[in-house]
Design goal:
The complex is a heterotrimer. Chain B is of the alpha+beta class. Chain B is 45% helix and 26% strand. In chain B, a hairpin with a 2-residue loop joins strand 1 and strand 2. Classes of the chains: A alpha+beta, B alpha+beta, C mainly alpha. The complex binds zinc ion (ZN).
């Protein structure tokens, strides 16, 4: 896990990942972050992960279910995999996630780099009205 | 393997024929033929035991796959589904927005489900995007089965219009080119 | 996750559901899993006589089907195809068991792997085993377990699951005439076995 000592505060990629995840989940229209195959294998336990190469910690990035964050020269880059609510327009939701995440990265003192958003599924949430 | 079931009774009927007619009332031949009646009686016990086994297995709550097995199957399918094709919707300095082909096709299926007389089948989506211009053009190739007896051109046109509304509303881009192929009819 | 997807209601034809599952539609695949899992379990249990092995076979079959689905060219052939996958997994497992049995020296273990290695004494605590006692009284299940594996598969597919001669032939890589012959031989062995049982 990379650690950047920036303006007296200790910000690492894990912190950026959790910040990005939280911000995404608070954005209207985001139902949840979507686990990837790696997250699924991790849920099966160490045996399933044993022959699965984990690239995360070597390049200083941090990954968790649905989020990857990387810090390079004081700039934070984020990837998010999300499920969106069918009652919202998916592209607007994704753009709003980008904006909010970049804004919150600014508050940490790091420079916001690109925030890549991947919409994995669009679903009806229990409370939404189907179109 | 030998062709052992050419065995026939003296009356010319094969054992297979008699077995096939076990659960039916006797034919006019069988009513008069003692050979057939005797053969039928010999096999009656097997037939009854087979039906009893089939029924008891079918209704035995223990003879089912446990829920945790079903959950494992679906969890793995879900995890692997995450690798489906990605289509780029937007690319700016703030980052890219991608959508899985599956998320798009689920919207299209939902639109199709609202049209009576159509069952959506396979759906392939291509995207041509010009990131600089911020423009994205979709080509949707949807295959469907239609109910036999419906007005196919009108129904397909209704589906096209529905998709043309659903994609901008759900995704935020135009539906682009929508190709619909009727590949099968189903009975209602 | 796609449970709320209304695209798979009860009256959707199976061909369409299969086509959607081929595209990776999870709700459609889940529908197929629910349609076939118990049928396949009943087949596998009667083939293998072991609850865990039968569950493994069904789980492996359905998982393999998810991966191989896009290659299935005729959506209407799904039923036959999934039965074929499951049957052949059962037969493979039985072959492995009998290969193992040949190297076993403990007499108790030899006793539990009769004939083609199919017959294992069900566990006392196995609820399926106790619940089936009524059906077993006529000896059919006992006799079934003494049949060679291919004969048993033939019998179960045809008489319990109602699959066609043509499909069974494809599954077992034999022609439909041979399927009839195999069924006839199974029927005779069952008749003999059941009369001994009485
Ligand atoms: Zn006769």
């Amino acid at each position: 896990m990379s650690e950047q000592n920036l303006q007296g505060s200790l910000i690492n990629s894990e912190l950026i990942a959790s910040l990005a995840a939280r911000t995404a989940l608070e954005t209207p229209g985001v139902l949840r972050l979507e686990p990837t195959i790696k997250g699924f294998l991790a849920s099966l336990g160490p045996a399933a992960l044993a022959n699965f190469h984990i690239s995360g910690s070597q390049d200083g990035s941090y990954r968790h279910d649905g989020v990857v964050a990387r810090i390079n020269d004081g700039t934070a880059t984020v990837h998010l995999d999300i499920a969106t609510d069918i009652a919202y327009t998916a592209l607007s939701v994704a753009e709003s996630v980008q904006e909010r995440v970049r804004e919150n990265i600014c508050h940490t003192g790091l420079n916001p780099g690109p925030v890549h958003v991947h919409i994995l599924t669009i679903e009806a949430s229990p409370g939404s009205i189907p179109r | 393997m030998a062709l052992e079931d050419t065995r026939r009774l003296g009356c010319g009927r094969s054992i297979d024929q008699i077995w096939a007619g076990m659960d039916q009332p006797p034919t006019s031949h069988e009513e008069d033929c003692e050979l057939c009646q005797a053969a039928k009686a010999r096999m009656q016990k097997i037939k009854e035991a087979t039906v009893a086994l089939r029924e008891s297995d079918l209704h035995n709550p223990e003879m089912t796959l446990p829920a945790e097995r079903t959950n494992s199957i679906m969890a793995l399918a879900r995890a692997e589904a995450r690798r489906s094709k990605r289509l780029v919707l937007r690319g700016t300095e703030y980052g890219t927005v991608e959508i899985s082909e599956q998320a798009l096709s689920s919207l299209i299926r939902l639109a199709a489900a609202a049209i009576p007389g159509i069952h959506s089948r396979r759906c392939r989506i291509e995207v041509q995007s010009d990131a600089e211009m911020g423009s994205t053009h979709l080509t949707i190739n949807l295959r469907v089965a239609t109910a036999s007896g419906i007005d196919i051109p009108a129904t397909v046109e209704g589906l096209r219009q529905k998709i043309n509304k659903a994609i901008p509303a759900g995704v935020g881009i135009d539906a682009g080119t929508v190709n619909i192929t009727v590949e099968d009819l189903y009975d209602v | 996750m796609n449970d709320s997807n209304p695209a798979c209601d009860a009256d959707t034809d199976e061909g369409s559901i299969v086509a959607r599952a081929q595209d990776g539609d999870l709700a459609a695949f889940e529908h197929l899993v629910h349609t076939y899992q118990d049928r396949l379990f009943r087949l596998a249990y009667r083939m293998l006589n072991d609850r865990t092995d039968a569950e493994d076979v069904v789980q492996e079959t359905l998982t393999a089907s998810w991966r191989a689905l896009p290659m299935l060219s005729d959506v209407k052939a799904f039923g036959g195809w999934i039965y074929r996958l499951a049957t052949n997994k059962c037969l493979d497992l039985l072959r492995k068991r009998s290969a193992r049995a040949e190297t076993i020296t403990d007499p108790a273990e030899i006793h539990s792997t009769l004939d083609d290695g199919a017959t294992r004494a069900p566990l006392e605590a196995d609820p399926v085993a106790s619940a089936e006692w009524a059906a077993q009284q006529d000896g059919l299940t006992t006799v079934l377990n003494t049949l060679p594996a291919v004969q048993r598969a033939c019998w179960l597919l045809r008489e319990i699951h109602g699959r066609s001669y043509a499909e069974i032939g494809v599954t077992l890589k034999i022609n439909p005439t041979t399927v009839r012959g195999t069924l006839a031989r199974a029927r005779r062995r069952i008749a003999e076995g059941m009369s001994q049982w009485r």
